[in-house]
Amino acid sequence: MGHNVSVVDAENPAVDESAAPSGRSAGSALEDNPMMYHRRVTSFRSRHGSLKDSQQRTWDELWPVLGADVSEEPLDDTAWFGRSAPLVIEIGSGTGTATAAMAAAEPEVNLVAVEVYRPGIAQLLKHIKNGGVSNIRILKGDASEMLNHMIADNSVTGFRVFFPDPWPKARHHKRRFLQTETISMLVDKLRPGGVLHIATDHADYAEFIAEASAPENRLGPLSGPSPMTLERPQTKFEIKGIRAGSTITEFIWEKIEE
Questions:
Q1: Rounded to an integer, what is the distance from CA 243 to the centroid of its chain?
Q2: Parallel, antiparallel, or unpaired: how do β-strands 190-200 and 248-255 relate?
Q3: pLDDT in tens, 136-158
Q4: What 3-state class would DSSP assign to 119?
């Protein structure tokens, strides 16, 4: 891709080579890839079962207004939000702690969260209600189907993909969301100057992402201010991760004008 790499690693300057694929350092493919990436700490996400009574009540109240299932119907975010604003899509919002905080920090954007896990969506709805956040809508279902059918090319200001499932076993790598084809599709949907922001806490997946993104020549480092916030709030799970010494890698790209 022909661009220089910018590395910020103040908190964790040492690369964890023990977590890299055999015979190769964890920094090799990352350093060869044209991106800006940051090292920070994180931890694992917790999972819960069925909805609690309070979650179900919040779901019944808010889902009909703020939620929809992934479908083949093109997304009309202007009608859904009741306004025209830059569109940011978060793929895999989890329990929504960061989603709600980032939306509150950028009220000028329309933020669509995509998630398959119903209890996680219920938690996000609770954050929305408790925080009085008005600029979030939620799609429940497969993100690939959403990209294929619902999102127009050159329409998205920013994508966030935070901590996608790493599928750590080699035979499961084909299930990883961030394949070369998917990254290219994300870039198709971005408007020129739009941002793709990825974070992972898995060293091998970071290498995988660096390699998968290498053929995409429409991505480069930010050339100016970001059109969306890049500051992720630190969740309680990340605080636990700090104590455990976990690290994350963040990729921040801009779609280059063609």
A1: 24
A2: antiparallel
A3: 999 999 999 999 999 999 999 99
A4: helix
Residue 221: Cβ-neighbour burial (10 angstroms; 0-12, 13-18, 19+)? middle
CA gap 183, 223 in Å, rounded: 20
Residue carrying the six token digits 């890839």: 33
Burial class (CB in 10 A: 0-12, 13-18, 19+), 179: middle
Tokens 């660096």, residue?
210
Q: Using an 8 Å Cβ cutoff, are 96 and 122 in contact?
A: no
132: left (phi over 0), alpha (psi -120 to 50) or beta: left
Q: How many CB atoms lie within 10 A of CB 91?
A: 23
d(CA 250, CA 241) in angstroms, rounded, equals 16
Q: Annotated catalytic, 165?
A: yes
Bridge partner list, 38: 8, 250
Give dist(CA 114, CA 77) in Å, integer: 14
Say which of 9, 16, 165, 188 is annotated catalytic. 165
Render pLDDT for 22-81 as a digit per residue (tens, 0 to 9). 333 334 455 555 444 444 433 334 344 588 888 899 999 999 999 999 999 999 999 999
In whole angstroms, what is the distance from residue 29 CA to residue 33 CA? 6
pTM: 0.81
Main-chain phi, psi angles of 48, to 5 degrees: -125, 170
Domains of the chain by range and CATH? 6-255 (3.40.50.150)
